[in-house]
Specification:
The protein is about 40% helix and about 15% strand.
Length: about 400
């Protein structure tokens, strides 16, 4: 009888895809399902990006590319970082990858092993913990608290570092909470990291273009004192509505770049060529499509927060970034995952239970407002009726 290595028993999942599958199944059975679960813009990829991908195929870009990505795209990433952050990054430190998760996978594989500790945000993107456990390292959750506006606390984060800590993962703007960490906290974190020179940092900035209410996104790339141990994660999926194109990029410190390149060679060879040419059009082309998308998310954000705060025994602080709300449902009497399941099965509203994002997610559910305003209002009405009729506790 065949068997696989025990490490695979420690791998988790991203439950948003399980919820999506169940929602699609119910829809195929004739149910009217409103999906506020999946973190995917409902807008199409802008037409100039699509046309660039089509042109690349017609121009014969059908073969392998360098494992690190074509130089033209790596240069476009460098220009984008300079335009958005005022930071110079060499194209030789940029790695093109098939989506954001690959950078997480690479970084955690580099530093995760039995006896090591890796710090990650909780509640946070579930793949962080999944990959940490796969490597045999000890996952150490960094609490992301509502009382702190769902920003990370530099003091609390630094207090969790030990002599076994190898990697710290940070995420702002954040999934699932929509929190944006202010510059003062980032400054304090970087200052404190001076006492821990052996700790690498993975900064997940995939939602960096999506902030509201005048909040600014502050990239960790702006801190030269940690650039020699900083891994920067970004990509096209959220910013340009390109989730299915599978295009991400990362910036690596020189000591780690070749190791990342070797992982790319061993894992996926390269990102498909047409997608890379589409990425150049996205980064170098007009950015009004991004501004329009963020403005639409902002309008929906207002609807979601107002509607959630009108629900019985529900409260929701205003998210400052990304396209998620993370309402507190602790006073409803429902456990979060049971509530999310009941909302889907009974009234056709797909959400994600907070515990799917970590041990500190209990008492919350995640709603994505990457859906139409009409559907959001319909979903809130269904939630209002459900909670009014099925109050517990």
């Amino acid at each position: 009888m065949i068997s696989i290595v025990p490490a695979f028993g420690r791998i988790g999942e991203e439950n948003a895809f399980a919820v999506l599958a169940r929602a699609n199944q119910l829809a195929s059975e004739g149910r009217d399902i409103i999906n506020l679960g999946i973190g995917q813009p409902d807008m199409p990829t802008p037409s100039h990006i699509v046309e660039a991908g089509i042109k690349a195929l017609r121009d014969g870009h059908h073969g392998y590319t360098p494992a690190v990505g074509i130089l033209s795209l790596r240069e476009a990433v460098s220009r984008d970082i300079r335009r958005r952050h005022g930071i110079e990054v060499s194209p030789d430190s940029v790695l093109i990858v098939p989506g954001g998760k690959v950078t997480m996978f690479m970084a955690i594989l580099m530093f995760g092993e039995p006896g090591a500790e890796i710090l990650y945000p909780d509640p946070g993107f579930p793949i962080y913990r999944s990959m940490i456990e796969f490597t045999g390292a000890t996952p150490v959750p960094v609490p992301i608290r509502e009382a702190n506006g769902f920003a990370f606390s530099a003091e609390e984060t630094l207090s969790l570092i030990t002599d076994r800590t190898r990697l710290l993962i940070v995420n702002s703007p954040a999934n699932p909470t929509g929190g944006v960490t202010p510059k003062a906290e980032i400054d304090a974190l970087v200052a404190g990291l001076a006492d821990h020179p052996g700790v690498a940092v993975l900064s997940d900035e995939i939602y960096g273009t999506m902030t509201y209410d005048g909040e600014a996104h502050h990239s960790l790339l702006a801190y030269p004192e940690i650039r020699d141990r900083l891994i920067y994660l970004d990509g096209a999926s959220k910013t340009y509505a390109m989730t299915g194109w599978r295009l991400g990029w990362s910036v690596w410190p020189k000591p780690l770049y070749d190791a990342a390149r070797k992982l790319a060679v061993n894992a996926h060879s390269c990102v498909n060529a047409a997608t890379q040419w589409a990425g150049i059009a996205a980064l170098d082309g007009p950015q009004d499509c991004v501004a329009e998308m963020v403005a639409e998310f902002d309008r929906r954000r207002t609807l979601v927060v107002e509607g959630l705060n009108a629900l019985p025994n529900v409260s929701c602080i205003t998210p400052k970034g990304a396209f998620y709300a993370f309402p507190n449902v602790g006073k409803t009497g429902w456990q979060a995952k049971r509530l999310a399941s009941a909302l889907l099965e009974e009234v056709g509203v797909a959400t994600i239970g907070g515990p799917d994002f970590g041990v500190h997610g209990e008492g919350y559910i995640r709603l994505s407002y990457a859906n139409s305003a009409e559907n959001i209002l319909r979903a809130l009405e269904r939630m209002q009726n459900f909670l009014s009729e099925r109050a517990r506790g």
